[in-house]
Amino acid sequence: MPQQQRAQLTRHSILVAAAGVIDEVGYEAARLSAILRRCETTKGAFYFHFSGKEEVAHALVERYRENLTELSERWYQRAQDPMATLVGLTCDTARRLEEDVLLRAGLVLACNHVGTDTDGWECLFDDLVGRAAERGQLRPGADRAAAARLCYAMVVGTNLLVAGDPHRLAARLEESWRVLLPGLLADSSRMAAAAR
């Protein structure tokens, strides 16, 4: 195996191990020794790729942010109505988070402002709920900023509620959208399918 390919595999192995440890015990409790045991590598190999745990965390956050950007661009390109885009994007992300420990750890780190000042979601909620308000999709008199904050809080809260069992995230999020949308939208009947 060429040296460059072996180095890439080692770096990826370290990221996966770090993500697994962070997913299980959190960033503060994650120890370098646990990461090294999990990926079966030496300190020397670790320090060849990363200067420390913080740099690994930054790499995980960067990977998460790149994935969120790519996924949100795909949902925006579908040119659906804004609330369908928001529901679809959050549920699609939830399904990915269930399966990908790298993304889960990146989200946890981003939410705790490790390596970033934002989790990347607030601006998406503001934009999509704002677009929905401009199209008249929100109930008459609804405060668009408050609606965006409520949607964001619902998604964050749902994520926190299933933190011990992330494989339930998509189902719980779909359920939460089904409950929230009728009180938020002028015509929530056409949104029911998006939250399934």
Our Rg estimate from Cα atoms comes to 19 Å
Averaged pLDDT = 88
Distance between the termini: 45 Å
- Characterize the largest beta sheet: strand count, sense, and whether it forms a barrel: none
The SSE string, one letter per element, is HHHHHHHHH
Report the strand count: 0
| Helical amount | over 70%
- Count of helices? 9
Shape: elongated
The secondary-structure class comes to: mainly alpha
Which strand-content bin applies to the residues? under 5%
Poorly predicted residue ranges: none
What can you see in these coordinates?
- It is elongated and about 60 Å long.
- Helix 1 crosses helix 4 (53-77), helix 5 packs antiparallel against helix 7 (122-134) and helix 8 (144-161) runs antiparallel to helix 9.
- It is built from 9 helices and no strands.
- The mean pLDDT is 88.
- The chain has helices at residues 3-25, 32-39, 43-49, 53-77, 82-99, 101-111, 122-134, 144-161, 169-184.
- With 196 residues, it is mainly alpha-helical.
- It is 71% helix and 0% strand.
